[in-house]
């Protein structure tokens, strides 16, 4: 979790540089998030970031599904209700929210959990989920537009989140949680390790691909990740970079 709040702010700045350069036509272009335009994606990010601020202020988030499989439907409804917003106004709104959240999360007592969707998270874990969501949706924005968006060392937080939530992911899929060791190659060529090296199952390969699989933007079979041991392939199948 080291430097998560500073890395979150850096991820916001990276995306801001992309959004600031978009043309009107690009704002209305279909994104890689099915059924959403680029504007819809940014609106979703602004709406959910505002929910972070509401949680920090002690208010219960209104984005509270009865079941975790309702999350996508609720997100669609939230976006549909406000998608008439102009790109300039939306960018201003998103910037106001993301400018406030990293420092506010960093200042929040680390042992005081925050309301988030259907549960609660620590400030650091919530910051990590925000970084993961912004990174995944940045991918949705830039990919159809052919805009470069570099993989960075900030992915270590997303990879950590994916590995940390594997027991939950196994359970949601109706499987028994099993230990899995991950040895991932960072964008800079460093080695990132998650879990017990003695675990009978292991996943190895590029960290960026691991994160894309966890974001459901890349199928395991289309990646170069290697799954060895009795439960590694199943782990890649249920991997998710989010907490609900």
TrEMBL record:
Q: What UniProt keywords apply to this chain's record, in alphabetical order?
A: Isomerase
Q: Which residues form the Mycothiol-dependent maleylpyruvate isomerase metal-binding domain?
A: 8-141
Q: What Pfam family is a match for this entry?
A: MDMPI_N
Molecular functions (GO terms)? isomerase activity
User: What organism does the UniProt record list as the source?
Assistant: Nonomuraea typhae
Q: What is this protein called?
A: Maleylpyruvate isomerase family mycothiol-dependent enzyme
What NCBIfam families is this protein classified in?
Answer: maleylpyruvate isomerase family mycothiol-dependent enzyme (TIGR03083)
Keyword field contains Lipid biosynthesis: no
The protein's superkingdom reads Bacteria
